[in-house]
Amino acid sequence: MEGWQRAFVLHSRPWSETSLMLDVFTEESGRVRLVAKGARSKRSTLKGALQPFTPLLLRFGGRGEVKTLRSAEAVSLALPLSGITLYSGLYINELLSRVLEYETRFSELFFDYLHCIQSLAGATGTPEPALRRFELALLGHLGYGVNFTHCAGSGEPVDDTMTYRYREEKGFIASVVIDNKTFTGRQLKALKPRGNFLTQTHYAPRNALPAWRLSRILAVNH
């Protein structure tokens, strides 16, 4: 793949005295491992650009699992993350590094990632809504999408006043037991994505805890 691609660095580490090993997330090729030769040298113009949260254009090639970086350009300065938003961004990067296979295309997920990082950079309050939306979107891209509007057992629309529990590979089924792993029908409807999942504005603070509980349950099951 020798053409230019939009990309973000997920992780980087020294590879030699003058080179870096990069784990990058690209628009067309998905997650890719690259060697950036000479990027650690004093004269390199790449060192400052090859950082997490910097929008990049990359060109790379090679036949093995580890590709060689040919060229790199920063599209803009790094998105301004600091404190809790920086830790949140690093968490998202680690999540992608753990669940995405190399060289598997996830173009829509790439833009969900971009929207998430932009949301974190512009956050004036808690980063939790952006994190929960991204976690659920990621599960959907991996094939674990959730039906928030219908009971998996009966096929009927969920009832606002009833309680439901998530069952792996099935979905939400009615439950007579109420605990921290159950949700009301009203909560499920509030968690249902509307339009572009990462840019929706309906994600009210009252839904943050149910979304956090759901993301933890789904992560354990998948």
From TrEMBL:
Keywords on record: DNA damage, DNA recombination, DNA repair
Ranges where the DNA replication/recombination mediator RecO N-terminal domain occurs: 4-76
One of the Pfam families matching this protein, by short name: RecO_N
GO biological process, one term: double-strand break repair
Keyword DNA repair attributed: yes
GO cellular component terms, semicolon-separated: bacterial nucleoid
InterPro entries given in the database record: ARFGAP/RecO, DNA_rep/recomb_RecO_N, NA-bd_OB-fold, RecO, RecO_C
Matches recorded under PANTHER family: DNA REPAIR PROTEIN RECO
Family label: Belongs to the RecO family.
Function statement: Involved in DNA repair and RecF pathway recombination.
Quaternary structure note: Monomer.
Designated name of the protein: DNA repair protein RecO
The organism of origin for this protein: Escherichia coli
